[in-house]
What we know:
Elements: H1 3-56, H2 65-74, H3 97-109
Amino acid sequence: MSGSDGHPLEALRDRVEKDYRRVEEEYRRVEEDFRRVEEEYRLDVAAIEHLQRRFFGGASSIPTSNDSQRSIESNSESPTAKLPPQYTPERLQSDGLEDSLRSMFKTSRG
């Protein structure tokens, strides 16, 4: 192998190493994004549970989509949650959490 034959191999090796580092860095970013989304999901679930405890006293739980589908199939009428009298719409006061959740859902649907 002559010296001129080694040059293209070195260039190829450098390019492969550079691509590898770039892909590895991109993988780290994606992994960080995944962790961030996972944390946001955990916080969203905690906020929903907070609202449940606040309005329903912890007696109710949010069904998953599979659970709600099963209950729709098994019952002709779905159970409705009734708010206690002190939680009628005219007496509800927003604590900011509701508004932020509403805006999140609106932006995610839009």
